[in-house]
Write a structure and sequence with these properties.
Chain lengths: ~150, ~450
């Protein structure tokens, strides 16, 4: 039967071994892979300012980005591709809360410059390789279209 | 209770209870907003409500852990806390930082990083606060007569939790790297070192409530926390599927996070086996309910409901939907909420010398809160599955999907009401005990 000492060795040994593997993988991910997958060369000053504005206003408190955040407002990873620059700019600069069918967004009334930076950030996010996320709707083609 | 300094735990437990009630209030604000009733939008926009809801959760659980440590460590080390005034200072600074952070959220003062919204200047105060707490605990252990496995595992968990807060304070220009390290804090807390704290508190409660030999309990404690780290560290990979990190995380995260329930299963089997083995009939049966409850519900909420959406092929569709909220609510409640409430239920009668645990309110609080939370989890599951199919699989527009989900939020509010009644009864019962008294001290 397992003794207390063996149990302790299992705990300490397992922890150390797996933590070292995790550190190694993390290093490889961050140093080698993430810059390629996220096009780090495209992180312009505007993109970085956009991320700061995005953080400072806690946009993640309603939206998800890369699938992370809150579930009150639409996923933003592909917002640039889906909605286009003009639409995004209107949403960010209007002085009244943007409220598509009643669900209100905070009216940020951003300056042109700020809105452009946030849009640059969203464009950069949309170009990152997220291993296929967000998925394409795979059942859409199976929904029967009623005859007119 | 043997040591006078253990009384400080009462303050932390009281803070826990109050913050839990406040957390629930913000939960209701969000649920109503989902139904279209967002009358508070100008004062408390949704992002302020969610930041408050999540951070109050973290703070009330941490406050509970700190109270538990201040209660357990003197008892285990057989030594008074090294300084009660320092512990009081630590308590008040924790409470003040918490209140300032919550007010700040309402004034757009925060960082937009889920669970870590506390703004940077307050982060430094949190670090100082936690260092002070650790100093008191570690020095007490150092000067104490005994260093038991239970107290060491608990202290190690608290120490690692503090260390892991640091990577979350580094600024990255790259959203992917930012998120990568955010999970070092959030995941390695809740699916790593917090389980160490949980294991330590659970072992202490089982030793006290079942009377099973300490050596047996502590041996299994090592096995369980070993399983936690072996599966949980690389299990962090399930957060690295779709955020701009390489594909090998799909395999590593999938395999290791599928193993994560083993630690929780171990915890549940361990608690039940010790309960059966124990010959002692401790009069505080409601504390035993919470203790066994936390072991079982954490297995269901954190273990099974986690596995339900952890495989990459499933998570591709559930990532960023209410399926996550389903898992999150029962996991936090089962593993950490019930644990803290269990510790409070065990310790309060000993601190105050009153035995209100036989009052019907104590039992109702347990059952109503649990039934309510299971109902809430079911409502989140229904909403989440609806969202996955309509939005992700069929490609319906976001807001159309949200409107189709509204009915589930009605059920959520109904179940949450039941939950709230249970929690209000719990907190009222706690305050009915009154404050700790020296008369409750055991004479040596």
């Amino acid at each position: 039967m397992l003794s207390k000492n063996q149990a302790r060795t299992f705990f300490l040994g397992g922890t150390v071994v797996f933590f070292l593997i995790f550190l190694g993988l993390s290093w490889h991910t961050l140093a080698r892979e993430v810059p390629k997958q996220t096009n780090a060369q495209n992180l312009t000053e505007s993109v970085i300012r956009g991320k700061e504005i995005f953080d400072k206003n806690n946009c993640m408190g309603c939206h998800t980005i890369m699938g992370e955040g809150a579930y009150y407002a639409p996923e933003l990873t592909k917002a640039y591709e889906r909605k286009g620059e003009a639409y995004l700019k209107t949403v960010l600069t209007v002085k009244e809360p943007w409220a598509p069918r009643g669900r209100k967004m905070v009216a940020y009334a951003m300056s042109d410059q700020d809105a452009n930076d946030v849009i640059a950030f969203l464009k950069w996010v949309g170009e990152a390789d997220l291993n296929g996320f967000p998925p394409k709707p795979d059942l859409q083609s199976k929904v029967p279209v009623p005859a007119k | 209770m043997k040591y006078k300094s253990q009384q400080i735990a009462w303050w932390f437990f009281a803070l826990s209870g109050v913050l839990l009630l406040l957390q629930i209030t913000y939960g209701f604000i969000m649920a109503f907003a989902h139904l279209g009733y967002d009358g508070l939008h100008d004062l408390i926009p949704f992002n302020a409500a969610t930041a408050t809801h999540k951070n109050l959760l973290v703070v009330w659980i941490l406050s509970g852990f700190m109270g538990a440590a201040y209660f357990i460590i003197p008892d285990e080390a057989e030594h008074e806390l090294i300084s009660v005034p320092l512990a009081k200072l630590q308590f008040w600074s924790l409470a003040i930082v918490g209140v300032v952070a919550v007010i700040g959220f309402h004034l757009n003062w925060w960082e937009g990083r889920k669970f870590l919204e506390i703004p940077r200047p307050l982060d430094y105060l949190v670090v100082v606060n936690v260092l002070l707490f650790l100093y008191i605990i570690i020095m007490t252990l150092w000067k104490g007569k005994k260093r038991t496995t239970t107290s060491l595992v608990l202290t190690m968990g608290l120490l690692f939790a503090a260390l892991l807060y640091l990577p979350g304070m580094i600024w990255f220009d790259n959203q992917t790297m930012d998120s990568f390290f955010r999970w070092w804090v959030v995941h390695l807390w809740v699916e790593g070192v917090w389980e160490l704290i949980m294991g330590g508190i659970l072992a202490y409660l089982l030793i006290k409530l079942t009377g099973v030999d300490r050596e047996v309990i502590e041996k299994w404690l090592y096995v369980i926390v070993g399983l936690t780290f072996i599966s949980g560290i690389l299990g962090t990979g399930h957060h690295y599927y779709y955020i701009g990190t390489p594909k090998y995380w799909l395999m590593i995260g999938g395999i290791f996070s599928a193993m994560e329930p083993l630690a929780f299963l171990g915890m549940a089997l361990f608690a039940l086996a010790m309960y059966r083995k124990g010959e002692k009939r401790h009069p505080n049966q409601i504390a035993l309910n919470w203790t066994l409850g936390t072991a079982i519900i954490s297995f269901v909420g954190a273990g099974l409901l986690g596995v339900a959406h952890t495989l990459p092929a499933v998570n591709m569709y559930t990532h960023g939907t209410f399926v996550t909220a389903m898992h999150g609510h029962l996991a936090f409640w089962g593993a950490y909420g019930m644990l803290v409430l269990g510790m409070i239920t065990y310790a309060t009668p000993l601190m105050t010398g009153r035995k209100l645990y036989t009052a019907p309110g104590a039992s109702y609080a347990f059952w109503l809160s649990n039934i309510g939370m299971i109902g809430m989890t079911t409502a989140f599951a229904a909403a989440g599955v609806t969202q996955v199919y309509l939005e992700r699989k069929v490609g319906m527009d976001f807001i159309d999907t949200q409107q189709a989900m509204e009915v589930h939020f009605l059920v959520l509010i109904a179940a949450a009401t039941l939950f709230t009644v249970g929690i209000v009864m719990f907190v009222l019962n706690f305050f009915k005990y009154g404050k700790p008294t020296d008369e409750a001290l055991e004479r040596a």
